[in-house]
Amino acid sequence: MKLLFRISEDYEEEMAVAKSVFGEDLVNYRTEISGNELVVGRYSVLPFYEELEKELALKGNRLINSYEQHLYIADIKNYYEDLKEFTPKTYFLWYNLPDGSYVVKGRTNSRKFQWDKQMFARTNVDVVSIVSRLLDDSLIREQGVCVRKYVPLRTYDIGINGLPITNEWRCFCYREKLLVYGYYWSNFPDKKPYDELPEEALDLLDKIMKIVSKKTNFYVVDLAETEDGKWIMIELNDGQQSGLSEIDSGIFYKRLKEEIDE
């Protein structure tokens, strides 16, 4: 197994930790991968995932998630029907929405740090103007937009532009196994309410892993507690591209290597 880690000033410390775990199995360039290897593309598979997959295949290599598997977890439109009982109701058309508040985002990414201007719609009337702003954003426009029913979460603080700092957790999973999890808001580590997820959250995660593991291999599940104490899924992401939030990088890479090397 090779860890293909893209060089970036943003992830220098994380790469150093990964190198201490993977040693020579960490590479920065695809040309360093000889052949017949399983490849985990850490921050290195986008924007040309399909092309990377084809290039690696020329030497018999394969990514931990195929392009098809990546699309399943990267685009909410692909996984929503499988997981809709665990996550806020989501619309892919934004006309004639019921009265209420909504969260508007790309089908993969959001502009959460522009919460009050490019994400949160206080009423259904506000949705169209936020959609219009997002469709002017080249990244979001390419993905397509979705509109999600706003579910108030247990909130500890309010960040820039009205962004709620909530009880949200990031869980890295490999197939049907939880590798590691941590508090989502890395800019607000002091807001972490406890060190271990409650049983209700882990039970929900178990149900989600049983479904998602049939469609892909390495993925992230973001979970959050609602204002009334219920746990829900916020979204899925590809584990190769997802940041660690408050997860210890040494523990993450150690468990990733141990699990995949088995």
Features of this protein?
single chain, 262 residues, alpha+beta, D-amino Acid Aminotransferase, Chain A, domain 1, four-stranded parallel sheet, four-stranded antiparallel sheet, 32% helix
Summarize the structure.
The chain contains 9 helices and 14 strands.
Q: So, CATH architecture of the largest domain?
A: 2-Layer Sandwich
Helix-strand category:
alpha+beta
One letter per element, helices H and strands E, the order comes to EHEEHEHHEEHEHHEEEEEHEEH
Query: How many domains is the backbone divided into?
Result: 3
Query: Average pLDDT across residues?
Result: 95
Low-confidence parts lasting 5 or more residues at pLDDT below 50?
none
What is the level 1 CATH name of the largest domain? Alpha Beta
CATH topology annotation of the largest domain? D-amino Acid Aminotransferase, Chain A, domain 1
Would you write up a description of this structure?
The chain has 262 residues and is α+β, with helices and mostly antiparallel strands. It has 3 domains: 2-65, no CATH class; 71-87 and 154-261, D-amino Acid Aminotransferase, Chain A, domain 1 (2-Layer Sandwich), CATH 3.30.470; 90-149, no CATH class. Helix content is 32%, strand content 24%. It contains 9 helices and 14 strands. Strands 2-1-3-4 form a 4-stranded parallel β-sheet. Strands 5-8-6-7 form a 4-stranded antiparallel β-sheet. A hairpin with a 2-residue loop joins strand 11 (168-174) and strand 12. The longest helix has 14 residues, at 199-212. It is globular and about 55 Å long. The mean pLDDT is 95.
